[in-house]
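Fold it.
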Amino acid sequence: MNGHNTYKWGNHTILVTVIVVVILAINLSVVNAATSVSISDPVGDFLFPDITKLNINVTNSNLNITITHVDDVFDPLGLRTSAGIIFIDTDLNYTTGINNTGWGADFQIEYNVNKYFKVVHLVNSNAESIDISANVNVKGKQIFFSVPLSLLDNDDGIVNLFIATKESIWIGSTFDRAPDYGVLNTGNGLIEIPFPYNELAGGTIIDSIDDSGYPDVTEVNATIDRGSLNVVVTYKEDLIDTSVTKGAYAWINLDTDQSLATGFTNTGQNPPTFGIDYRINYHVSALLGTPSAFIEDGIGSTNVGLPYNDGIYKYGGNQIFLSVPLGLLDFDDGNLYLHIYSFNPNTIPSTADIDNVPDYGEGALNTLNGEIQPLVSCIGDWVTVTDPDNDSYGFGLEGDEITGVSTCKAANSIIVKTMLKRFDLDDRAATNIYLDVDQNPNTGLEFSNEANTIGAEYMVSSARTADLMLHTFLSSLEGEDKQVDQLAIPLGTQIVVTVPLELIGNDDGAVDMLVQTSDPDYFLQYDIAPNTGIISLSPNLILFNQFLNTGWNLISIPLNLSSWELGNESVVGNPLNVTPKNSLTSIYRYNTTSGLFEKCDHFDDWGWWQATGSESFTKLEPSKGYWMMAKQDCNLTFTGTAPSDLNVTVKKGWNLIGWYSLSGALLGEEAVVGNPLNITPKNSLTSIYRYNTTSGLFEKCDHFDDWGWWQATGSESFTKLEPGRGYWVMAKNDCVWRHEA
């Protein structure tokens, strides 16, 4: 949102701005028949055709577009051809339309003109084409288009558009663009990026020199600029010569949602950590022909810049430059994990010839903070079992002989390594991990070894298929099968699997498991580990310490507590463990229905007792805020497991909420920092308050619709939500908060 800094001057200015915008919108809707906007384009930024000006107006129910160039469109000999595409987003919705443009274009005008012919078609999102050559004229340096609005679904003429042009209908990876970035809105004449993104995202990786054979990457730089991901890859040496011995082929792996739970592959690092949602492939090689780049998502692929999108791929000397609109990455916000895998396509690469950036085992670039995101790692000890040799019914010929299993818990995931006697490219046995997430043998699918039974709710199965690749599937008790190739890698004679807890019901990490090998159709069991006993993981226990001042403190619970009950602590446990002991006197919660507080009192060396009228206040709850009275400074320790996502009902008026998370979250412009208070319906909250125990005063942030949070005067330090703190929020209507832990 342009000019958002005006928010600091209070609501008065905002009201004036809104009134002006409303009046302007009314005027535009009335006079759109005479709407006229124009922009200039730099001279000399392209050889031919070089756009200098773009003018759009609406008259007589026609959308009129005039493109002015540096040179005449026709040359005397008729050797030149001016070609291009005008991308038109009629519904002003970047999520609809032709899905390979990256900007939500609903229509494309594809033109190809020279002295001897004129071919112009209007193409809609259903790939239906209409010849509109009769609506196009060329004169000197200008091309005139007049398109009836009836052909644009009777649009009002207020559209977002841009033009890409070069000397061929195949736009390719270099072209002249007007405007140079974003889209031109014909309603207000502004150049806009129509979707939110983090313009501060990016980072640089300095890679070790001579850590691989040719080509050796030395640096990778990623930035988010004007709605596009820009990547520059620098190599130690030039990438191409007159022979066919040099060149580069690379995958730029992108985990756009920063989650292993989604994606179609991983980075090949041990253990799997990043779920790759998109992979940009590029090559520079005389042997492979014209250098090119394309984006794949596990379903299909889109060429970068060819033929109908806004991507750019350039190379020169020892560098590669790629610019990919975030629209081609499902309108990502630019916060992503990035990893590169590069080698020489003119030779058969060995491991030493492949350059991983960052280096193998280090992780990936996190563009949110510019740091290297490490691989997942165990929180506790590995649990390992061995399996006897030669006990497989497959005779060890198909990767079926299990020699051992090791597993551990990581943050929000489980890592399982299955060791096999052999695991060759032609081995076809399936390795199946059965998971009993509630550790109850009486629920789930009954699965047994020689002596024990588990009730499995999930199975993770990995097997090599005819394409020699390892493919992995997650099956649930409900019968849902999901391909999750990103969860597993082959590593010598091992299969390493990382299972995100969110894929198995947001489990707390406590799980019983058995591992089996079988034929690919799961009919014949080859081997099972262990033969007797069960592999078990207990919950991950986390301690969170919070300092409390003497007097009032506004707190919340950041963990999934081991005990939530308030009562006799020798019976129900102690969810509020303080040092020194017996430092707390009372705790209050707010009842949004009655508008009254409910209270529990603490009795030394016994526990908590509900006050009269507060008999229902028997336990603490996640996402709730609580007033707590301490009779001295003390440390409060919460014990539990990692929190999980949940939906929280927020009532109209005052609500006392808690930040149910171990991580803080910024409050600010939501397009930049994200939206920690993800409310449905949108814009239902008006303000949020926190209590300053030092000053005894409240600090406030106000919410501005469709923009985000702004600190009130005197509350400039209130820039984020923090674990363990409670907050008052004001809602103007009932709503639901999707709390993402």
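Residues 1-34 have pLDDT under 50 and may be disordered.
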